[in-house]
Structure formats: structure tokens, C-alpha cells
Design brief:
A three-stranded antiparallel β-sheet has the order 2-1-5. A three-stranded antiparallel β-sheet has the order 7-6-8. α2 runs antiparallel to α3, α3 packs antiparallel against α4 and α5 packs antiparallel against α6. A hairpin with a 3-residue loop joins β1 and β2. It is mainly alpha-helical. The model has no long low-confidence stretch (mean pLDDT 83).
Length: 286
């Protein structure tokens, strides 16, 4: 068995394990009862998003293991790059939920015993899956990319910078509200998932700023270019925010605020910029 086959088998195994754990395990343990993935008091919207990502990861993993070509040619996105994006988005989605549970938002913290084994186990699996994907990049051969013209480089750099700033500042606005009041994403009592957005948005703002320089920013290398990594970050922002919005629609005791929509729009904007860049230059899809 070749190293490529071993890595393919590991990726399929992780995908199956992730999907089984999120579906079979509890997501929230209170002192007197537990809630599963689709319950409004349990996984809610985050569970729905995790299942969708899990099915997509399994589909892509099986396709790659069968050694069939899986490439979105107009966007220069191959199966490995798509799987990396889905894996990282799954990890951030599950991590956001774990943070919400243990920050006690929209429920009394004293009544929370902890996150269930379903979401905790899924978080552990989702942490290792992107690493297994990246390990496979070393066996894919030489990659290449073409530079952008100066005009496009400046436009894209500015758009990435603006998207990153908006993602980072989105939690400063109203994040959710109940009958007791409203909270921003950074206030005590609010879900601490806002700090994940701060990290992701701050990174993208820095990347955009560096790409505005005359010399630009060096490509990450290997099979990953700037638009690939920007796609990873954009889906990692969009996925947990969609989960939070669905949760707000499911629950009668809370609603989401404008900050969530600002973050979602900024994430979609970053994804659009990445797609635009992938159509303006030639990079290796794998």
C-alpha cells in the first residue's frame, strides 16, 4: 500500500467517524437531561451545519480514495483543497458550539454540565482531518501559479482587507437578544465565538494589507495559494454564523442581532473575492 493510499484511507476513516459521532452522540448535557444534535436546546443550527459538512467531506473523501478526478476546473479547486476547506470549516463550527456551551450564553451556566460526547468527539476528529489532508499534499507533485496583474492585485488586496476588518468588528454589534436584554459578541454573557471571528478576520485584514504592498505577499506554497486559503477562512466564518442564525430561528427565547448578518455578509464577500481571484489566474488544482 502506497503512502497516498494510506492517507486516503485515513481521510475516509476520519470523515466516517466525524459523521457518526455528530449523529450518535449528545451535544449538550444539563444537570437533569441531555440533548442531541437536532434539538433546539442541543446542537440546533450548528448540528445541521455539521451534518451537511460531514456528508460533503465523506463524499469528497470517497471520491479521492477511488482515485477519480474531482476538480472544479473554472475555479482551480481540486478535491484535496475542497476537503481541506470543509474540514477546517467543520472544526471551527464545532469549536464555536463548544465555546457557546461553556460560555453559558442564552442559558444559565450553572445548569450546564458540559458539552456532550458527540460534539466533543467531533471536534477532536475535525481537528485532525485537515492535518491528514495537508499531509497528502506532499505526494501530489509540483504545483505552479501565475501572478495577478497590478490592477487586479490591488483590488483583491483591498477587498480582502475590508472583508477581514468587517469580520473582526461584526461582534461589536448586537449579536443576540432575549427578554432580559441584548448583547454584542464581545460582552460578558455573550457567546465567545466572536473571538474566533476576531482571529480569522484579523488574519485576513493583515493578509489584505500585506497584499496591497508593492511587493505583495509571498504565496503559501505547495498546493495552496492565497485564494485557496481565503476560501478556507471564508467558509470557516460562514458555517458557524449560519449555525447561529438557524439556532436563533429555532428558539423562542432568543433572536440574532445585526452583527451576525454583518459577519455573514463579510464572509460571503471574502468567498466572492477568492472565487474572482481563482478565475483571474492559473493555480494548480489538486
Amino acid at each position: 500500500m502506497t503512502p497516498t493510499n494510506i492517507i486516503s484511507a485515513v481521510r475516509v476513516g476520519f470523515s466516517i467517524l466525524f459523521l457518526w459521532i455528530v449523529l450518535a452522540g449528545n451535544w449538550v448535557n444539563l444537570r437533569n437531561e441531555s440533548f442531541g444534535i437536532f434539538d433546539s436546546q442541543g446542537g440546533a443550527g450548528f448540528g445541521i451545519v455539521a451534518v451537511v459538512l460531514g456528508f460533503l467531506m465523506l463524499l469528497v473523501s470517497l471520491t479521492l480514495a477511488a482515485e477519480k478526478e474531482f476538480t472544479i476546473k473554472p475555479l482551480a479547486m481540486g478535491g484535496n483543497q475542497i476537503l481541506l476547506t470543509l474540514g477546517f470549516a467543520s472544526f471551527i463550527t464545532v469549536l464555536s458550539f463548544l465555546i457557546i456551551v461553556h460560555s453559558g450564553s442564552f442559558r444559565a451556566l450553572g445548569g450546564v454540565r458540559g458539552a456532550g460526547w458527540g460534539v466533543a468527539g467531533a471536534g477532536l476528529v475535525a481537528y485532525f482531518l485537515p492535518q491528514a489532508v495537508m499531509a497528502g499534499f506532499g505526494f501530489l507533485g509540483v504545483s505552479s501559479s501565475t501572478p495577478l496583474n497590478e490592477s487586479d492585485r490591488q483590488k483583491i488586496g483591498f477587498a480582502v482587507f475590508v472583508s477581514g476588518v468587517l469580520i473582526a468588528v461584526a461582534p461589536l454589534f448586537e449579536w443576540f437578544k432575549t427578554e432580559e436584554g441584548a448583547w454584542t459578541g464581545y460582552e460578558p454573557g455573550a457567546p465567545r465565538m466572536g473571538f474566533l471571528l476576531l482571529a480569522l478576520g484579523g488574519t485576513m485584514a493583515l493578509v489584505g494589507f500585506m497584499r496591497l504592498r508593492p511587493k505583495g505577499l509571498v504565496e503559501p506554497g505547495g498546493r495552496l495559494s492565497h485564494p485557496h486559503l481565503q476560501t478556507v477562512v471564508s467558509l470557516s466564518v460562514i458555517s458557524p454564523l449560519i449555525g447561529w442564525l438557524i439556532t436563533g430561528f429555532q428558539r423562542d427565547d432568543m433572536s440574532t442581532g445585526v452583527g451576525v448578518w454583518i459577519g455573514l455578509i463579510a464572509g460571503i464577500m471574502l468567498l466572492g473575492v477568492s472565487v474572482f481571484e481563482l478565475t483571474k489566474r492559473e493555480v494548480t488544482a489538486s
